[in-house]
Amino acid sequence: MQFDAELLLLAMAPVFLACIGWEAWHLHRTRPEAGIYSWRDTLCNAALALLQQAADKLAWLAIIPVYAFFYDHYRLLKWQAGWVSLVVLFVAQDFLYYVFHRCSHRVRWLWAAHVVHHSSERMNFSTAFRQSLMYPVAGMWLFWTPLAVLGFPPKQIVAIVLINLGFQFFVHTQLFGSMRWLGYVFNTPSMHRVHHARNDRYIDRNYAGVLSVWDRLFGSYVDEDPVDPPRYGIVEPLYTYNPLKATFHEWGSMFADAARVSGWRNKARALFAPPAWAAAYHARMAGMNDAAGHSREDAIVFPTSREEREIL
Ligand SMILES: [Zn+2]
Ligand SMILES: [Zn+2]
């Protein structure tokens, strides 16, 4: 029987569900007042996972031939099957995941898909299920194309992408402390709690997939500080448990902003600037509307640099 790599996460579903059931039961017994689980939140997360799995299965049909094209015509290396090639594939994909994830927080077009993963204000194993069916549209698959050029066959690329995501399920929990020694090499629950927090000092930090070394190398690492516990969620909160609203709200907001602003530079910023641009724009719009009683869009000065955004 041939193993179908695209179904790897579905095959692991019993393990994931057992962890969620155990964590919810354990927290109900030990910290019932903490409200770490809610039925509505967890059901929304599960619906998002199913939608994403269905979309992904379809998307791979279109994407695998693209990887095959690069593998057949442009591959630079030829690997002997064995541990060396598997380790290189794993490290290279994990690095590309870091790049993808960092871009997803700094480019609104990619954030429009990734925001789904961050819009819950809870943090538990089921939060890992919050994925977007729009990832293939946003272009996540493009980030793995270099692996085909490096000489890895499409099925191996799909498998390693899903193994990386499967590992990340286990860092979505509040049950474990700092795991300091493990954290020198691997992403840990403590590091990923920081990543899901909207406290100023934690925003845009700890992008790791499996290996934490990329954050340390590229200056995006920060420790979880017990005196500043993470507040989960996004800067502009989304008050819904509707999985379709959670999936499409940022796309709607992004295209509405692009249509509303004048000039091609501002339209490009609405689509591709960091999400902080949109938050600053929305805050200024709200301020303008409140003060004047009607919209004064023409009076808005758009933030163009990090410094300008920070003083807004
Ligand atoms: Zn993220
Ligand atoms: Zn996460």
TrEMBL record:
Subcellular localization(s) per the UniProt record: Endomembrane system
Domain of life: Bacteria
GO biological process, one term: membrane lipid metabolic process
Membrane-crossing segments per the record: 6-25, 82-100, 132-151, 157-177
Keyword presence, rRNA processing: no
GO cellular component, one term: membrane
InterPro entries: Fatty_acid_hydroxylase, Sterol_desaturase/TMEM195
Pfam families: FA_hydroxylase (PF04116)
Protein keywords: Lipid metabolism, Membrane, Oxidoreductase, Transmembrane, Transmembrane helix
Lipid bilayer topology: Multi-pass membrane protein
UniProt-recorded Gene Ontology molecular function terms: glyceryl-ether monooxygenase activity; iron ion binding
Residue ranges annotated for the Fatty acid hydroxylase domain, each copy included: 87-220
Protein name, per record: Fatty acid hydroxylase domain-containing protein
Organism, as annotated: Paraburkholderia saeva
Species classification: Bacteria, Pseudomonadati, Pseudomonadota, Betaproteobacteria, Burkholderiales
